[in-house]
Amino acid sequence: VDTGKVRFVYFDLPLQQHQNAMPAAQAARCAGDQDSYWPMHDQLYDAQGEWSNNSDPVGTFTRYAGELGLDERRFRRCLTTDLHREAVEQSLQVARQMRVTGTPTVWVDNIRLTSPGWGQLSAVVERELNKD
What we know:
Low-confidence stretches: none
Structural class: mainly alpha
Strand order of the largest sheet: 1-2
Radius of gyration: 17 Å
Shape: elongated
Largest sheet: 2 strands, antiparallel
Oligomer: single chain
Strand content: under 5%
Order of helices and strands: HHHHHHEEH
């Protein structure tokens, strides 16, 4: 990735069986507006038990934003106006087209990895890079 030979693309896949998955995906994107997508992403995964069944997760997500040093008012406005909902829904549409039903699902070029651990991933990437 650092050399420019490989590009990493991450798609949101908020699964329907998780009631707060869509707001969580939007929360990560709202944090991304303040250059903190991955810190929020990691916080959401680490604290999933705290917010997954919360009837109103916005307050919890806003607290996380504050803990990450983000502008909470800007973050909350982004989240409550569904600023990134369409982008998350487009990500879901791509997943459906690619027949992705769960996470993690990893593709390298047009190869779907069956066991997306580091060993398989690095082997496939190296093989693809050496084709040229």
